[in-house]
Amino acid sequence: MGLVTNNLPAILDRLPGGGFCVTSIDGIINWSRANSLWPLTFGTSCCAIEVMMAAGASRHDLARFGAEVARPSPRQADLLVVAGTVVKRLAPRLKTLYEQMAEPRYVIATGSCAISGGPFIYNSYSTVRGADQIIPVDVYVPGCPPRPEAFLYGLLTLQKLIKAGESIRRPYIRRKPVLAALPSGMTADQIRAELAVLLQRDSTVDLSGEYAQNMQAGGSKQ
Amino acid sequence: MTIRPITLADRIAAGQKVESLLSTQEYFVNMGPQHPSTHGVLRLLVRLDGETVREVIPVVGYVHRGIEKMGEYLTYRKFIHLSDRLDYLSAITNNWVVAMAVEKAAGIEINDRIQTIRTLCAELQRIQSHQLWWGVFGMDLGAFTAFLYGFRDREVVTDIFEETTGARLTMNYIQPGGVMFDIHPDFVKNVKKFLAYFKPKLEEYETLVSGNVIVQARLRGVGILSPGAAVSIGTTGPVLRASGVAHDLRKSEAYGVYGKVQFDIPVGVKGDCWDRYWVRIEEMRQSIRIIEQLIDSIPEGKHMTIKPTAKIKLPEGLYYNQMETARGILGALIVSDGGEKPYRIHLRSPNFNNLWSVTAMAPGLRIADLVAILSSIDVVVPDIDR
Amino acid sequence: MTNAIGTTLWQVKTLADRTTGAMPDSPWLAIGYILLGVVAVGALVAGLGLVLIYAERKIAAHFQCRLGPMRVGWHGIFQTVADTLKLLLKEDVIPERADKLLHLMAPFLSLLATVMVLVVIPYSPVLQIADVNIGVLYVSAVGGFGILGILVAGWSSNNKWSMLGAMRAGAQIISYEISVTIALLTVVLFAGTLQLSQIVLSQAEGWWIWRAHGIGLVAFLIFLIASVAEINRTPFDIAEGESELTGGFHTEYSGMRFAFFFLSEFVNMFVAAAVTATLFLGGWMPFHIGSFQAFNSIMDLIPPAIWFAGKTGFLIFVIMWFRWTFPRMRVDQLMKLEWKILLPIGLVNLAAASIAVLFNLYFFPRH
Amino acid sequence: MTGEEIVLAVSRIEERAKPREKCAMPAVTVPVESLAVFMRAIHDDPALSFDMLCTHTAVDWLGENRFELLYVLCSLKHGHYLTVSTSVPRDKPEVSSVSSIWRIAEWQEREVYDLMGVLYSGHPDLRRMFLEDDWNGFPLRKDYKDDFMLELPE
């Protein structure tokens, strides 16, 4: 982070028009971070196939969002996708991985297992009930496993979160974690259509407006 | 008596095996649990001498979820959901193993339509699994493009599955007494479309990867597994067949409708990485052959012979059923005490056994070869750990 | 100015020449020229980084039936900008047990070597910063210096994977440097000079790749293969070997320092392509055929800088094409390729070249 | 060979081997003392030649205070199967290892040791496999208690 982000706001804010400058710089920094989420190649079970592989492959193409540069080394990765079950034996290793990543780092927990333990919650002696018991999670993507489209939605949500989130005035400030769930009762075609609309407008998803309306509409139909 | 340092000549005279003039030190490295080519959270403790692998110690358990313990608390029908999540790339076959074990034990009759649908789906799944393997294999060798080609074609099969089963990966489709849903009206049409699409693509695979000089150099003669070792380690599936042992349950037990169709078992000669590669490519061709023979003649009938809500109780006893998944033989061993839930359920997973063949193959080779070997036996880690 | 056979002779004027020329009259102009040179190299490095990384990602994507970056600007054109900014502002992790000084130094060493080569490359008759009279020697010496950064990075990270990667890179570059040098010597024999601008001028009657009855072509292929190996790109990227060594020598690097390695990899690629183009494809020299004046003057209509960019761009594309087609070689196969295949062929080729030069056995000899 | 023939052939090798009741496939019960010798014999016997150990696991019969060890054997040469069962008392679960006969037994026995707590004498490397080394108890035993485990609400 260094000199710029630590000392700049204190100097600039006092100058006339400095506040505006800081805010603009904030915007640019967050824009760059949101659009360049390099994931760590890491996956424990089923979700890894859908979320890390299928989402990155030709049809869904994570590269469109600049997130295809999967780094095998945690030092260079920005995004830890917890794809799959976390068990007790893995927990310390997962924590190490998270700690090895350089700030700013983001975590998406995909699939029921990484959210809550999922199908392995009862009568299992080793399954950890959610990745958030070990590391802070920014976005949850539900599903068992989630569709690649659902993961893209989660990624867009994270981008939105980053753009609205940290600032150089207050680094490392996190918003509350977000559940990036597509409305229930949707078919695959609807999901694709929905995503297409969202993608055409902007690279971000308006969580408050659009999403809430859809939820209501979807809920009332049922 | 003069003291002089021990020379190379002395060591040769003493009958020692001399490999290097320099004194070197062996060291350990950890491959995994987070490593791009261990395909999940597998850890290999590797003892290295420079680039040369001296010993490989697989360390497993990083995704051990205790499925066998959970099975003791779940009814047979519920347990099938968990079987999806073992070897998620062979979800259909996993369902089928458990379902068939239950059917055999409870004496549930299955009609021909169900058997044909199950066989078709299992073969589609095998193709799908091998497509993914081919892509990942290419990626592990350093050819990233193969990965995307493999996945491009895999998506087509995934769509067919999604249409019929409602899921892309963990289908939970085969139930005791039948299949969850009848096949989609477009199933036959789409499968035919896929076969027409995929056959030329398979040739493209051959041009892109198989024929490449570097691939040949990387795979031929690397990681030889002798038939004796393969049997003793209990490897099954393509790994065993590549070592020259023609053991395929689809032929020898002819479950489903495999008895009615014509297909060959591809068998390797040397048991090296290339043979394992070739066996899988050839298996895709054979699977296409099987599907082509079945797709036009799916018999009429119901898709479920028992009520989906019927309680299933197995008579007291010990039951074992096994089946050929894309990676080898998956067995389900059920001990029943007469109740609705198994007293003990154990799954014999193909990957567990296949994994240990690395310890026999890798010593003496390079790190890059270890990656190729690991990829050529195609392990799925949650299936090892269960 | 024309030579004996009527071809236009190009007037080479480098930035260094201008500086020395301006020095007696106005020292300030000279200083201005020096500053211009510094800024130009800096801008070139930054520009190359932005353009080449974007190109690589787009080209790879289209090889792989997908779109590549699409969301940041028109067709993702600002993707690299976002990446760069993010990397610059990312936390800089230095492992606790690392050799701190060396760890900090390594990325700069790596980048420095490549930037130093950029200085002597003739981009066009008037666009060249310095024209060293031992240009070829300089390129090969400074180019080989880049390995130091990789070795230092691998050593100082205190990570076994990094160390392995660095050792692999060391062995690889020392081996392939020999082939590179031998292929260079072939051209030096034909051109009779070590000066890069003179080598370009010597191709006024035709490029060396086709003028020497296949000798040039063989040398070109050896040089291209060995250069790709030297810059650690697939199929020779064993020093990084993502699926084997997680990240090789840069496993422990994050943020800006990793960006420097990333950048130097891409600038290296440009340098390799540019040097290959200069030596074998005539650099900025248009496509000429001996004294075929009419044809030559048509070719001269295209400015030299465009010729240079086109040739270099094409070679960069070929190198990217390699990457997205071939799997990685194993370390012993890599050594075998160099010592048992490329080197003998290169030596025989060099001998053939000396005979060809001695008896003027190539097209359009000067004497 | 059919199931009965295998059981008959096997009982000729080891006279104490009795057919295991309530089993859908050919299965014999042998006393634990003679297991290693018996296994070696049916592995080497040319007519039986059980060259592959398909799976090995244990069942915890809490009421009868014993572990039943199950070995599913397969002969690739002849294409027949046999399940060998043996029992060890729960308070002294010791059995001789068969890892010298089938290599895979080394790891399958480690798994059973890890989850069931059966001790194998003569095993080259008897360690925990799936669980951490400091894990308490053997989770697949029927009386395994764990504060962490959640009961599935009915």
Distance between the termini of chain B: 65 Å
Count of distinct structural domains of chain A: 1
**Which CATH architecture of chain A is right?**
3-Layer(aba) Sandwich
- Helical amount of chain B: 40-55%
Major sheet summary line of chain B:
3 strands, antiparallel
Principal-axes geometry of chain A comes out as globular
Which radius of gyration of chain A do the C-alpha atoms yield? 18 Å
Total of helices of chain A: 8
The H-and-E topology of chain B, N to C, reads as HEEEHHHHHEEHHHHHHEEEHHH
Task: Determine the strand fraction of chain B and express it as a percent band.
Answer: 5-15%
Compute the number of helices of chain B.
15
Q: Count all strands of chain B and give the number.
A: 8
Structural class of chain A: alpha/beta
Number of β-strand runs of chain A: 4
- Topology pattern of chain A, helix = H, strand = E: HHHEHEHEHEHH
* Spatial arrangement of strands, main beta sheet of chain B: 1-2-3
Reported by name, the CATH topology of chain B is: Cytochrome-c3 Hydrogenase, chain B
Write out key terms for the chains shown.
heterotetramer, B: 386 residues, alpha+beta, Cytochrome-c3 Hydrogenase, chain B, three-stranded antiparallel β-sheet, 15 helices, 13% strand, D: alpha/beta, Beta Polymerase, domain 2, five-stranded mixed β-sheet, two-stranded parallel ribbon, globular
Helices and strands in order, then pairings?
The complex is a heterotetramer of chains A (222), B (386), C (367) and D (154).
Chain A: H1 2-14, H2 18-34, H3 46-54, E1 79-83, H4 91-100, E2 106-110, H5 111-116, E3 139-141, H6 148-164, E4 178-179, H7 188-201, H8 209-221
Chain B: H1 8-13, E1 27-31, E2 43-49, E3 52-59, H2 67-71, H3 76-84, H4 91-106, H5 112-141, H6 144-165, E4 174-175, E5 178-179, H7 187-210, H8 213-219, H9 227-233, H10 238-242, H11 249-252, H12 273-295, E6 317-325, E7 328-336, E8 342-348, H13 350-361, H14 367-377, H15 381-385
Antiparallel strand pairs in B: 1-2, 2-3, 4-5, 6-7, 7-8
Chain C: H1 15-22, H2 27-63, H3 79-88, H4 100-118, H5 135-156, H6 160-191, H7 196-201, H8 208-211, H9 215-230, H10 242-245, H11 255-280, H12 293-299, H13 304-323, H14 331-358
Helix pairs in contact in C: 1-2, 2-3, 2-11, 3-11, 4-5, 4-11, 5-6, 6-9, 6-14, 9-11, 9-14, 11-13
